[in-house]
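Posting for a labmate who doesn't have an account.
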Amino acid sequence: MKLKLLITTIVLLVLGCTQENESFQKPAQLETELKVINDYVSVNSVESLTPLLQRMAGMSRKELNSWEAKNGFVSLQSILNKAVEEETKYFDKLEAIGEQNLKKEDIKPHAPYVLDNAKYFKFHEDGWFELNIANQDLAPLLNKDGIIVIEGQARKYTMHSLFVSEDGNTNALKELQETNT
């Protein structure tokens, strides 16, 4: 009985260390499959998107923030994460103060960070908000402007459109959006 318990404990420890080590290596693995150029991500193939997004989904916020800081990149996902965090703090603070102790003009519908970054969000009547892009799953790879380069094509994702520059010119995407909105 003690031997079985010892073996089970050893197996669990080895598996736990392996999983922790895999988690630690995730940011390094990303760098072989994508590049950060200026302020956007570039990937070599459409096929690599799903595995990249799956690995990024398995990263903790700390790992994602660390990877972004190391590469000088800010994703829409990290903007959303920060907004949710700030929104939670804001409403916890309001609750702690008590509505009766606040002036009506001091109560805002959202945290200051959310209001300052409103262009990145779509707001709903019930107070809920989401990123202002149709495909939320791409958020970890999209820069603040919703841009990514895939197979040399620059793509800009919005709530209602996808703009593509075949030659990879990210500046042309802004012109395309302006002429089509």
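Reply:
Got it, the structure tokens are right above this. Helices lie at 2-33, 49-57, 61-71, 76-97, 112-116, 170-179.
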